[in-house]
Amino acid sequence: MSLSLSRRALSATLAGLLVAPQVTAASDPLEAEAPFFEELPTVLSASRLPQALNEAPGAVTVLDRDFIRATGYRDLARVLRLVPGMQVGQERGHRHWVTYHGLSSDYPAELQVLIDGRSVYTPNTFGGADWSALPITLDEIERVEVVRGTNSNAYGANAFLGVINIITRHTSQDRGSSAAFNLGNRGIVDTRLTWTGGNESMGTRLSFASSRDQGFEHIYDKSDSQTVNLRTDYRLNGQDELTLRAGFNRSRRGQGYDDTLFDNNGLRTSSTDNSTVHLTWRRTLSEDEEWLLNFYNNHDNTREAWVASGLPALDILVPLNRNRSSDRTNLELQHRFALNDAARMVWGLETRRDMVHSPFLFMDGDPPTQYLYRAFSNLDWHLSKDWQLNLGGLLEKDGARVPQFSPRAFINWQVAQGHTLRAGYARAWQQSNTFNLYSSLRVYEPTTGTLVAWPYLPNHALRTPHVDTIEAGYLGRFRPLDTTVDVRLFRERIEDFMVRRTLVSPAGNLPLPLYTTQFVNLDTPVILNGVEYQIQTHPWAGGEIRFNHSLTQRNTTSTAVSQRTSPYTLSASWLQEYDGGWTTTVSVLRIGSLAGGDGYVPGYEYMSKPYTTADVRITKRLHIGQNPAEISLNAINLGSRHQEIADRSEQVMHPEGPVNYAPRMVWLGLTMGL
Q1: pTM > 0.85: yes or no
Q2: pLDDT at 512 over 60
Q3: Would you call 647 helix, strand, or coil by DSSP?
Q4: Is there a contact between 291 and 282 (Cβ–Cβ < 8 Å)?
């Protein structure tokens, strides 16, 4: 599949969007339609202001609690495959490559990932979010809001191409205890226990989850994870509430391959401990005015060591490691209020401290402690009954870099009841991770001190990439089949995109033909043009169908960069409820060819082929004694075998075909109240 976005095609698309709402509006009385159109959800993540979905400045996909549970997935990253424009893949069972519009490096860092407004983007060396080590269970999630498009004016540099905000349930929403168990092939053994109690003024939830499996077949891919979470909500009075969230995750994961060159990616087990404390004070003065103070601290520590061998010319064994730890402390103040009956505003201040420690990866010394300062503001102004203006901006000072400003301007037009056209512009900056800036990794023979390899050089002169996004969209509700349609047309122009290049070794006399690399900026822009849309409909009683499709045209002088983005993605989900407590969910995903990061094998390019896969879940609701329960049969990766993302340093050793096929995984599940 390919995409050709000509002016004629864009004009025809926009014309169709304009005509459709006019026909619908003329055929139904507005009074009869009003209750139907009021059902659009309220979202918080687009501007930090609570807004109906049709008033948000941009495209937002909402994954609610019922939908997440209906998929039966064991991890949130897989749910994100069912969001238009998202490109998600796995090189192995416990490692998820989660991006919006692809384009990312081996460790995606273009999306801001939040849990209740707290960033889980780790400053730990490589950046990005560790999806397999999030200190949260799926059962705690109330909904996930995915802002599809640049949102740095609300959340800073890491919201370069979008935001994923995971919103957890308030303790007042649940009381009692529950348990869940999964048992299946590939060594799947999952357990979750949750207790929630309290009274009108204070509620507490305590949860424990354990997850274990053997991951992909024929590679060392075991995973064993435990998560403990505590949330307490304490209402001090009619205006003030304190919320404490504390979480801890411990993960043990198989890494590497048994036949990589010189064991540069040899077999080992990585151990990661991730802990967080998050305290929130909320003062609600009225429906239109609220103060919010957030403080949190994240700490993670990873141990990952092995020995490089297979160097007969030198007859040596070389110890390698990726041992690393990081600490993030963040304080944020936010105030939202109404200027008048037609305008609302939110403003805030934020400060952050990041510290990273990794002696082997930063042999010239740990990166300097990074201090970040932000000031932000967003305005929601209803110019008239049908026209709405969203203006926002964020000023950010990150370390020694010059301050950067991220503006956004959006106009929404309610062209007819239940039908909205939107258009806007935004600029965003991308925060460079510490590894790109400061990595100075050298490998020495342990007894003689001989320099064996110098794979990475730092580049303190890296320029900060920025993106200018222009988009137009349409959101419509149709009474026939209870249907919602959301369309986004976009142009994303990225300047100073970062890539990894090969250099002549600075040592000049290395004993082996190994290469040195450095992160640099592209001199030419990377431009993504495309269209994506989602359709949600209820064609018959108890049935729901969700269809997502995206097409992306990649314009860049670098073939390697264009290969990081799949030209298309498509997903369809059918959810059905039957009499007698039975339900089924079927999801089908299709994605085009994809490199899945930059990789590093000089002169070797590799892309995973397009594939189609299907996931199925069948559930039955019943009672065990007096307690409600649900039994499920779950299966993923059905259909033909496929590879999602390759490790190119391993794939180059196997020209005969893919080394990491995604396996079929089947498990039985039981969830019950206690």
Answers
A1: yes
A2: no
A3: coil
A4: yes
